[in-house]
Amino acid sequence: LGWKFYDADDYHSPENKRKMSEGIPLNDEDRIPWLCELHEILRREDSSRQDVVLACSALKKMYRRILASGASAIESNQLEQPGENAALKILFAHLDGPRDVIAGRLEKRKGHFLPPGLLKSQLDTLEPPSAPENFITVSLEKSLPEIVLEIENAIFQG
């Protein structure tokens, strides 16, 4: 796509990384500052008219609202904010698949602070996207080129 790429994991605090590496799941209190920082990155890039891809485990609807609208989304159930705080236009690509497929991919990752043992807590926290969120669901059982193509098609058709 020629777009900037950000991996949200690069922006976790050292404390969050330590907790996860010790097998301690993060809670909302741990994640909200991280999500607000990611929103600011997205807002900055949007103001520069730069399209971006952000790889992020935005597990809950509230987390996705924070990515789109910033800290104001924490206290509001509205996605759209008036004036200059308007929500960013984001297409969420929800990568979905059987637990064993996800676990297999986690087992193959080397040098990452999130141990495969935290998969259960991630899936327990997951609130899959639903209307009116702007999202597509893509099966993880497809090949990587098929996944990328499906996401690209959704971007350019929507």
Automatic annotation (TrEMBL):
Reactions catalysed according to its record: D-gluconate + ATP = 6-phospho-D-gluconate + ADP + H(+)
One GO term describing the cellular component: cytoplasm
Sample GO molecular function, one term: ATP binding
Keywords for this protein: ATP-binding, Kinase, Nucleotide-binding, Transferase
EC numbers for this chain: 2.7.1.12
Class of this enzyme: transferase
GO BP, one annotated term: carbohydrate metabolic process
Biological pathway: Carbohydrate acid metabolism; D-gluconate degradation
NCBIfam families registered for this protein in UniProt: therm_gnt_kin (TIGR01313)
Family of this protein: Belongs to the gluconokinase GntK/GntV family.
Protein name: Gluconokinase
Organism of origin: Smutsornis africanus (Double-banded courser)
